[in-house]
From TrEMBL:
Domain Ketoreductase: residue ranges: 25-215
Record SMART domains: PKS_KR (SM00822)
Protein species of origin: Calocera cornea HHB12733
Protein name as annotated: NAD(P)-binding protein
Pfam families according to UniProt: adh_short_C2 (PF13561)
Similarity remark: Belongs to the short-chain dehydrogenases/reductases (SDR) family.
SUPFAM superfamilies in UniProt: NAD(P)-binding Rossmann-fold domains
GO molecular function list: oxidoreductase activity, acting on the CH-OH group of donors, NAD or NADP as acceptor
Native organism taxonomy: Eukaryota, Fungi, Dikarya, Basidiomycota, Agaricomycotina
InterPro entries: KR_dom, NAD(P)-bd_dom_sf, Sc_DH/Rdtase_CS, SDR_fam
């Protein structure tokens, strides 16, 4: 049986504002140059974390520069998530750049391809699965090897409504995101006892580049919007709070969860 001191170490008794503080921590973020990833990288920095951005194009420095203006450190490590050999070295390269420890891994990088299942190209299937699932697993595996011995860490994966529903004309994406939900639970089952919490966030219909084609179709956009109880599509900023919550001590006893952020769509 754990002593009260040991329990306090695992679930600190802090004022609420301090529970959400990430001061002194380091977060590695994929997909942080736009959309949900950018909003969440900025949110983690606003909460006090130093940020390491894994980017396919390291010359895109606008997010890095915005984060630095917040008074925290931010560095870029080049990595194309489609290059699995580069992914295998990403965590160690981020450690070398940031020094010390990495406390939070935010897996937001991903891709989409739309086509009917009967016409879906095999090479696109492989690309979507590799980027959305295999790269996420390899990076989480490296993070686990780092975090488990330290007995602390947070891993946050970006899932999707298609973790729960199949979607249309997105067989690879739906398969990858369904697997992300299960992988989140599987890793939590192994690592929660080591004080490493693994959770996911499942976005609903969000106004980002990945959904530009849906929003461009006025009929489909209207039909989808009518099905959302909130009456609107979400924005990247809607993920700032959930991300900081899952990255902070405020969620110390939350693990293996897929938090849906969808304006009520799934509940309907």
């Amino acid at each position: 049986m754990q002593t009260m001191t040991e329990v306090a170490d695992l679930t600190p008794n802090l004022p609420v504002a301090q529970l959400f503080s990430l001061k002194g921590q380091v977060a590695l973020v994929t997909g942080g140059t736009r959309g949900i990833g950018e909003a969440c990288a900025l949110a983690l920095a606003q909460a006090g974390a130093d940020i390491c951005l894994a980017q396919r194009d390291p010359t895109r420095t606008s997010v890095r520069d915005s984060i630095r203006l917040l008074g925290v450190r931010c560095e870029i490590v080049p990595c194309d998530l489609a290059d699995l050999e580069a992914v295998k070295t990403l965590f160690d390269r981020a450690l070398a750049v940031m020094g010390g420890e990495i406390h939070v891994l935010f897996n937001c990088g991903g891709m989409q391809h739309r086509a009917p299942a009967t016409e879906f190209p095999e090479e696109k299937w492989d690309e979507v699965i590799n980027v959305n699932l295999k790269a996420l697993f390899l990076l989480s595996q490296a993070a686990g090897r780092h975090m488990v011995p330290l007995r602390r860490g947070k891993i946050i994966n970006i899932a999707s409504l298609t973790t729960f529903i199949g979607g249309v004309n997105i067989p690879a994406y739906a398969s990858s995101k369904g697997a992300v939900g299960q992988l989140t639970k599987a890793l939590s089952n192994e690592w929660a006892k080591h004080n490493v919490q693994v959770n996911a966030i499942a976005p609903g219909y969000i106004a980002t580049d990945i959904n530009a084609d849906l929003r461009a179709d006025s009929t489909q956009y209207r039909q989808l919007t009518e099905r959302i109880p909130a009456g609107r599509w979400g924005f990247p900023a809607d993920f700032a709070g959930p991300t900081v919550f899952l990255a902070s001590a405020a969620s110390q006893y939350v693990s293996g969860e897929v938090m849906v952020v969808d304006g009520g769509f799934l509940g309907r």
